[in-house]
Amino acid sequence: MIVPIPKIVFLSLLLTLNCLAVFSQDDPYKAEIGLQTGLNIYSGDVNSIADRELFLSNLQNMKPDFGAMFRYRFNQRLALRFGYDYTSVKGNYTYRDNSGIYSATLNNPLHVIDLWGEFNFFDLENNPYKLYSKRYSPYIFAGFGGMVMPQYKDSEGKNYTLTFPFGVGFKMKFAQRWNFNIQLTNRLLLGDDLEGMLQFDNPLPKTISNPMNHDLHSGISIGFSYDFWTRNCNCNESSFSKSRKPASQRIVKQKRPKEKP
Fold first, then answer.
1. Please, which residues bridge with residue 117 across strands?
2. Are 222 and 181 in contact (CB under 8 A)?
3. d(Cα 134, Cα 127) in Å, to the nearest integer?
4. Which residues, 6 or more positions from 231, have their beta carbon under 8 angstroms from its beta carbon?
5. Residue partners of 202: CB distance under 8 A and separation at least 6
6. Backbone angles phi, psi at 117, to 5 degrees
7. Other residues' Cβ atoms within 10 Å of the Cβ of residue 236
8. Using 50, 70 and 90 to split pLDDT, how confident is the model at 194?
9. Which end of the chain is less packed: N or C, by CB atoms within 10 Å?
10. pLDDT higher than threshold 60 for residue 211
11. Measured between alpha carbons, how far is 110 from 5 in angstroms, rounded to an integer?
12. Domains of the chain
């Protein structure tokens, strides 16, 4: 069973989109495209982060993540990111229940799609004459998405679930059009399907490890992206190689008057 998306998710998205028009556009490129990779860990019925001892022993089941992304930049502070990742929940997990400690073997490939908004704490550009302008910036993000599980169907015959992704990250421009980022991502499932096994799926009774009946998929990743799609404006052509000096600090050369013969 999939829990309906809370209204607060839609209200937050609408509020974010309404705020975008308030900020000025001062970025020579509209978008980025890139690749990322990392490691993911699952938390749910058979791997609870609340049970620290067993959770640490289950870290050996961290699985690789490979993905691609497209980021549309409204300006140096706000962006909208669409991404796809391929990963899995797989391995031998040890979990604790009312009557003792048990083990479960999971094997659930995942196709992950995300759409989230990002907020940079600094203006991401190399301009020493602009306050809060940096070649790097921490950022936060939140949005919504979905997971498709091609090898599993729940009690209702569905092989997908909705998610609520959120997290923090760090971006850096290391070349004129190249960017690097590292981020910590959490995806809260609006359901209990991540194990890929009916005996751990809702609406069966909730377990001690997962009292809310919502699984969590977390991971850390690094990525590289490339700027493209030039804006139709008088923006700075290269925020990495050039810096714009305020008009009050510019030195204007005076023309010498012509000498009369």
1. 80, 142
2. yes
3. 7
4. 25, 27, 28, 29, 30
5. 1, 191, 192, 213
6. -100, 145
7. 17
8. confident
9. C
10. no
11. 20
12. 7-16+32-243 (2.40.160.20)
